[in-house]
Amino acid sequence: MDLQSGKFYWPTTITNKPSYPRLEEDVTCDVLIIGGGSSGAQCAYYLSEGDLDIIVVDKREIGSGSTTTNTALIQYSGDKMFFELCQTFGEERSTRHLKLCQKAINEIEVAAKKLPTDCHFMRRDSLYFASSSDDVEKIEKEFQLLKKHGFQVEFFNEEKVGLHYPFRAPAAIYSLNDAELNPLAFNYGLLEKAKANGVRIYEHTEVIRKKYEDDGTVHFFTTDQRSITAKKIIYAAGYENLEINKEKNAAVTSSYAIVTQPLKEFWYNRTLIWETARPYFYMRTTHDDRVIFGGLDETTEFVDRRDSMILNKRDQLVQEFNKLFPNIEIEAEYYLGAFYGGTHDGMPILGIYDEYPHSYFLYGYGDNGTVYSMVLAKIIRDLIVTGKNEDLDLYIQTRRLR
Ligand SMILES: Cc1cc2nc3c(=O)[nH]c(=O)nc-3n(C[C@H](O)[C@H](O)[C@H](O)COP(=O)(O)OP(=O)(O)OC[C@H]3O[C@@H](n4cnc5c(N)ncnc54)[C@H](O)[C@@H]3O)c2cc1C
Question: 91 CB contacts (<8 Å, ≥6 apart)?
Answer without folding.
Answer: none
